[in-house]
Design brief:
- It is a multi-pass membrane protein.
- This is MBOAT family O-acyltransferase.
- By secondary structure, this protein is mainly alpha-helical.
- The chain folds into 2 domains: about 180 residues, no CATH class; about 280 residues, no CATH class.
- About 75% of the residues lie in helices and about 0% in strands.
- The longest helix is centred in the first third of the chain and has 33 residues.
- The chain is globular.
C-alpha cells in the first residue's frame, strides 16, 4: 500500500480519527492498521513477519533473563539473519557457488528460483537485530507487551523503507502513546513533511524515472555526455524518491504525535565521504557503525585494521542493498573512498593552506569533487550488470569525448535546476523555525488558506491515477 495511493490516505484518515477519539485503545488501533497495511503485500508475507516478530519478542525476553544470554543472543540474531539471507541471498549465493565450482546446483524450475522477497524485510530485520543487541547490551529493557512490540516494529509509517528506528528512541513513544495529545503545531509539521515528500515523489522522482530509464536502456551505447547526464539525473531520482518516503514517514509520525528520525540532510552538499554518510540514509549509516564497524574493532586496533573495518562495513552495506555484485562493489567503492579520504585529508589541507586558497573556494571544489565521486558510484548502483557499469565508467573518464548535443544540454539544465532546489532546500531547513514563524505570523490566514488549497489541488491533479512504487521497496 503506497503512501500516495487513495487506499492508504483513506486508511490513514480513519486511523487518525480513531487514534485521537480512543486514546486508551491506540495500541490496538495501530496494531490492526499495521496488519492491514502489510497484508496488502500478501498473507504469506504477513505471516512470516508476524512469526519473526514473535520469535524476536520471546528471544529478547530470554536474553534479558540472564540465563544462557549469549546463546539466546546468537539464536535470535542468527534467526533474523537467516530469514533475511534465505529470502534475499539464496539465489545469489547459489549462483556464486555454481560459478566457483563450475557445476549446476539449481534448476530453472527449482523453488529457490521462485522465492519472492518480502517487502521491507531488510528494514525490519535490521530494526529487530538492533533491538535485540541493545537489550543484550543492557541499553534498553525488553518490551513486556507483544502488542507494543508489534506496533514498534511494524508501524506503517516506517515499515517498508525506514527510517530504521532504535528501541531507545522509539519504544518509549509507543509505550507512552496513550498520553499523547493532539497538537496543532505537530499536525501542521506533519502535513508539511508529508506534502514535501509527496511533491518530491510525484513531481521530481517520478518525472525523472522515464528519462533515466530511457538513457540507461541504451547501455554501453551511451555517449560520454549521456553517461554523465543520465547518472546526474539518477543521482537525484534516487535521492528524491528515497527522501520522499522518509519525509512522508516523518510527516505521518508527527500527525500521530510521534517523532521519527530524519533520514536525509542534503547529502549532495557533502565535502567528503565521512560527511556524506552523516547526511545520506542516516539511520542505516549509524546502524552499520554501531552494529558492524564498532563490533569489528572500529578504530581501536591500529590504522590498517581501521581501514579494513571501514571497507568491510561499507561492503556489507552494499550487499544489504541488493543481491548483486554491482551492489557489493558499490559498497566496497564507498569503503575505499572513506579510506582514501583519511589518507589524503591532512596533505590536501596542508597544500591548501600553503597556497592560501580561500575557504569558500575549498568548499566549492570539495563539494564538486565529492558529488562526482558519488556519481561514479551510482553507475554501479544503477547499471544492469557489472560489465555495463565498468564500460560506462570508462566512457565517463574520457571527458574529452563529451559532446553537448541538444539532449545532453536539456538534461544538464534539468540537473542544474535540481541542484539549485537541493541547495535552497538545505538553507530552508536550516532556517526552518524562523520561516515557520514568518509564515504563520506575517502571512494572513486567507492567503495561507488559498495557498493550501492550491497546493492540495495541484497534488490531486498530478497524483490522479499515479501510484509508482518507491525505489527502495526492492531492498
Amino acid at each position: 500500500m503506497l503512501f500516495h495511493s487513495t487506499e492508504f490516505l483513506v486508511m490513514f484518515a480513519i486511523v487518525l480519527f480513531l487514534y485521537y477519539l480512543l486514546p486508551r485503545y491506540r495500541a490496538y488501533t495501530l496494531g490492526a492498521a499495521n496488519v492491514l497495511f502489510y497484508a496488502v503485500t500478501g498473507w504469506g508475507m504477513l505471516a512470516l513477519f508476524l512469526a519473526v516478530t514473535v520469535f524476536t519478542f520471546i528471544g529478547t525476553r530470554l536474553i534479558e533473563s540472564g540465563r544462557r544470554k549469549r546463546f539466546w543472543l546468537f539464536v535470535t540474531v542468527g534467526g533474523n539473519l537467516f530469514n533475511l539471507a534465505f529470502f534475499k541471498y539464496s539465489v545469489f549465493l547459489l549462483e556464486a557457488l555454481e560459478h566457483t565450482a563450475g557445476i549446476r546446483l539449481v534448476s530453472e524450475d527449482s523453488f529457490v528460483q521462485n522465492i519472492v522477497l518480502p517487502v521491507g524485510i531488510s528494514f525490519y530485520t535490521f530494526q529487530l537485530i538492533a533491538y535485540t543487541v541493545d537489550v543484550a547490551r543492557g541499553y534498553i529493557p525488553a518490551c513486556r507487551s507483544l502488542l507494543h512490540f508489534w506496533v514498534f516494529i511494524s508501524l506503517f509509517a516506517h515499515l517498508i523503507a525506514g527510517p530504521i528506528m532504535r528501541g531507545k528512541e522509539f519504544m518509549p513513544q509507543i509505550e507512552g502513546m496513550a498520553s499523547i495529545r493532539f497538537r496543532l503545531y505537530n499536525f501542521r509539521r506533519g502535513v508539511f513533511w508529508f506534502g514535501l515528500g509527496l511533491f518530491k515523489k510525484i513531481m521530481i522522482a517520478d518525472y525523472l524515472a522515464p528519462i533515466v530509464d530511457g538513457i540507461y536502456a541504451k547501455g554501453t551505447m551511451m555517449s560520454t555526455g549521456e553517461a554523465w547526464t543520465g547518472t546526474y539525473l539518477f543521482a537525484f531520482q534516487v535521492l528524491m524518491d528515497f527522501s520522499a518516503y522518509s519525509e512522508m514517514a516523518l510527516g505521518l509520525g508527527y500527525m500521530l504525535g510521534m517523532k521519527l528520525a530524519l533520514n536525509f540532510k542534503s547529502p549532495y552538499i557533502s565535502q567528503n565521504p565521512s560527511e556524506l554518510w552523516t547526511r545520506w540514509h542516516i539511520t542505516l549509516s549509524s546502524w552499520i557503525r554501531d552494529y558492524v564497524y564498532i563490533p569489528l574493532g572500529g578504530n581501536r586496533k591500529g590504522k590498517i585494521r581501521t581501514y579494513f573495518n571501514l571497507w568491510l562495513a561499507m561492503t556489507l552495506s552494499g550487499l544489504w542493498h541488493g543481491a548483486s555484485w554491482t551492489f557489493v562493489l558499490w559498497g566496497a567503492y564507498h569503503g575505499l573512498l572513506l579510506i582514501g579520504y583519511r589518507l589524503v585529508k591532512k596533505p590536501l589541507q596542508a597544500v591548501a593552506d600553503k597556497l592560501s586558497i580561500p575557504k569558500a573556494a575549498r568548499v566549492v571544489v570539495a563539494v564538486f569533487a565529492m558529488f562526482h565521486l558519488v556519481c561514479i558510484g551510482w553507475v554501479l548502483f544503477r547499471a544492469d550488470n557489472l560489465e555495463t557499469a565498468v564500460l560506462l565508467i570508462y566512457k565517463m573518464a574520457h571527458v574529452w569525448h563529451l559532446r553537448l548535443t541538444d539532449s545532453v544540454l536539456n538534461h544538464l539544465l534539468i540537473f542544474a535546476a535540481l541542484y539549485l532546489f537541493h541547495v535552497l532546500e538545505y538553507f530552508a531547513m536550516k532556517k526552518g523555525s524562523k520561516l515557520y514563524g514568518i509564515w504563520f505570523r506575517k502571512i494572513p490566514f486567507p492567503v495561507r488558506s488559498v495557498a493550501y488549497a492550491a497546493a492540495a489541488l495541484f497534488l490531486i491533479v498530478f497524483t490522479r491515477g499515479v501510484e509508482n512504487t518507491f525505489i527502495y521497496f526492492q531492498f
